[in-house]
Amino acid sequence: MVKPPWKLTGNGYIFIFNFPRQFVEKYGFIPDYLKGKYRGGLGAVMLVDYHTSPVGPYQEALFVPGLFEHEGRRLYSITKIYVSSIESVLDGQDNWGIPKELANFAITPLSSTVERFRMSHEQRTFIDVTLKSQPFQMPANLRWLPVRPGLIQHYQGKDIITRPVGKGRVGLTRLEDACVDPIGFPDFSQLRPLVAVRASNFTLEFPIPKIIGAQRGN
């Protein structure tokens, strides 16, 4: 097991949404300890290709519905996430309580600006999207945000709060074609994002989390 902090680099796509409450409650894979606590706000889908990490390269698809109110705090939570590395699954759970599941990924460049991103699990394709990105990019840094609520996850009877930081270059992107199976991942293709960007050559840091002793929940 590789203990935190972790530093990762890579490329990826970030879609920012204001998800409808009904969508989140029906399709958001909300864990029991957060049910009834959704408070809205901005959420995200991220499709990531990590080039380097403490456990080597791997790919990832994750869903963050928005803010939840839990134990007097308003925090984000990753409610669905797949990665291509068993080491990332195990260490992500043990270090930060992130509910990672193992899946297969294929990322195929179709041109200098178009890329196909696929994710499948147990021989069933859950995500198959084609994205076209603009060549112009600008710097971005999470530290520039005036407020950075953390992530809340629940694992082995404990609440785990993490505040990741990252920086890189981002440019606008759009879905050219998309097929998402809601059995395995929230079907974001049916919603219009507020903004969609491709992040290039980013650095992401997952620090040592704050662990709060045994709490009620599953």
Give the biggest beta sheet.
Answer: 11 strands, mixed
Average of pLDDT: 94
In CATH, the homologous superfamily goes by the name Acetoacetate decarboxylase-like
C-alpha termini separation: 24 Å
Features:
single chain; 218 residues; mainly beta; Acetoacetate decarboxylase-like; eleven-stranded mixed β-sheet; three-stranded antiparallel β-sheet; 2 helices; 17 strands; globular
Q: Mind explaining what this structure looks like?
A:
The model has no long low-confidence stretch (mean pLDDT 94). The chain is globular and about 50 Å long. Strands 1, 3, 4, 7, 8, 9, 10, 11, 12, 15 and 16 form an eleven-stranded mixed sheet that branches. The protein has a three-stranded antiparallel sheet with strand order 2-5-6. Strands 13-14-17 form a three-stranded antiparallel sheet, covered by helices on one side. α2 links the parallel β7 (80-83) and β8. 8% of the residues lie in helices and 54% in strands. With 218 residues, the chain is mainly beta. The protein has helices spanning 21-27, 86-96; strands at 6-17, 38-40, 43-52, 58-64, 67-70, 73-76, 80-83, 100-102, 104-109, 114-121, 124-133, 138-141, 151-155, 158-162, 165-180, 195-206, 210-214. The protein has one domain (6-214): Beta Barrel (Acetoacetate decarboxylase-like), CATH 2.40.400.10. It contains two helices and 17 strands.
